[in-house]
Amino acid sequence: MLGSFDKPVTGDGYSIVLELPVNDPLYDKKKKLLHDKGFGIKEQIPLESSSSPDSISKTLETMLQIGRIIHLNEVELYFGEFDTQSGSYSTRNEVEALNLVLSLVESLLASQMHKQINVWKDLKKAIIDKIHEFGNQNKVDAKIDRNYICAKEKYLVQWGERNGVKTKLEIAYVEGAGRGVIAMEDLNIGDIALEIPVSIIISEELVYKSDMYNILGKLDGMSSETMLLLWSMKEKHNCKSKFKNYFDTLPEEFNTGLSFGVHAIMALEGTLLLDEIIQAKEHLRMQYEELFPALCNDYPDIFPPEFYTWEQFLWACELWYSNSMKVMFADGKLRTCLIPIAGFLNHSLYPHIVHYGKVDSATNTLKFPLSRRCSASEECCLSYGNFSTSHLITFYGFSPQGDNPYDVIPIDLDVGQVDNIEDCPMSNWTTHMVRGTWLSNNHNMYHYGLPSPLLDYLRRVRNPTQQEKTFLPADLEIEMEVLEDLQLTFSDMLENLGDSDFEDRENTSWDVKLAVEFKDLQRKIVSSIINSCSAGRKLVENELSRFMSKE
Ligand SMILES: C[S@@+](CC[C@H](N)C(=O)[O-])C[C@H]1O[C@@H](n2cnc3c(N)ncnc32)[C@H](O)[C@@H]1O
């Protein structure tokens, strides 16, 4: 349970309870962070009927601080330990935290078992204002071509509506993102932008009903995802398919990292994305060769060879990677699905739709509710997940606009070296990473915009007994060593990335453009770390000379 509301604790005030779920995989670390900020794992937040606007806003901030921590993911938690005093950890996290608090207040208001309804209404208004204010600060302007009329997309929506789809969105062309959806009217928090009946969702059930299942179901290690992928490769050619309108809207080519040509691959030299793409492609090639041409040779009627070439296999993989969603059905089973119409929703780092993917068993539909306002004509986006740009390029073929907080560079360290840290969940990270230091709001001494778990680890390698950070020379010398080492590591990395020597960006192919953009982003991240180390060393030097002058 993330939160609930309670009977009065004091006077005539009611309280809301925010609780860290015990099954949270990051429970210990979040518990420690809550504790460091002065909270327990279960906090009862009271609100008196006489509350002034000032105290309502203080109550809201307290609830948000807890809500943010409850909703942190691993990367946000790794970087957020000392960073966020009151600000947000990420746009996604902020939307989640605000919506958590809003849902609790709404449940309390819906219960109507309290006397002081006005104060809760005021709190609800304050939350909604905050969501709007945050929206205005983080506006991403997408250029939309409303005149883009495509008969195929229109037919699909009409077909959907005949089959029970309800939508407040229309399809348009969004510059740099292909097709997207825009709001037909002003949509508010909680409004359902799109509702898709289960009957038009493409899921594994379709394979079980097909003639392929007799063959595929008997193959060892065959997953339902692979079966469905093979099914879609054939079904797209079926003129009588129930999903013909859907298949007609799919592009002939998906421009994802898996289709990068040799020049783009070469442009990625020195980056981890190069390995990611090569490994992913090798894995798919092996998977293809395990199945083909054997299936076509043994069952040519079921697997016609012309539908099962390597190129078509890769096309289907790109379709499933870039367009599928995981859906929890009413039977409690999670299935990977293609969802007609919802497949036009683009990704954003600041999504309108955050909570989706669970079938509403009362209506047997999949609903896409808004977690923040979307004005008429504005593009409505969801979050595909907390993905790094390298993942988005490899499997989706784009680099998102704005600062991506999940763009981390892993650091290879032998984390087994340090003892005595078991009791300290925050130090007990088994992997370490860095990201652009402009994302940090703490560039002070002992922080430098760098992640605390990494700095603490590097300090403890040098001095396992260090408990407190002091301004004594012995500690300062350790700080200096840590920063020098990091600076050296990242200077080497920058050198490996080479210079940005690419001039004619506009006239190049989509893949080289994407590769070059990615490399620029890597350079920007690595340079920020080098600069922060250098600025940090100056801070330490100043402290050392201050100490010396006192002596
Ligand atoms: C689920 S589809 C969304 C609809 C898609 N734009 C279309 O025209 O079919 C996912 C694909 O949309 C594109 N896309 C999604 N979000 C994007 C974004 N923020 N920027 C650029 N392209 C995006 C990528 O090509 C991605 O593989």
TrEMBL record:
Signal peptide: none annotated. SUPFAM superfamilies: SET domain. InterPro entries: Rubisco_LSMT_subst-bd, Rubisco_LSMT_subst-bd_sf, SET_dom, SET_dom_sf, SETD3_SETD6_MTase. Keywords: Methyltransferase, S-adenosyl-L-methionine, Transferase. Residues 167-385 form the SET domain. It comes from the Eukaryota. Coiled coil: none annotated. Pfam families: Rubis-subs-bind, SET. This is SET domain-containing protein. It comes from Xanthoceras sorbifolium.
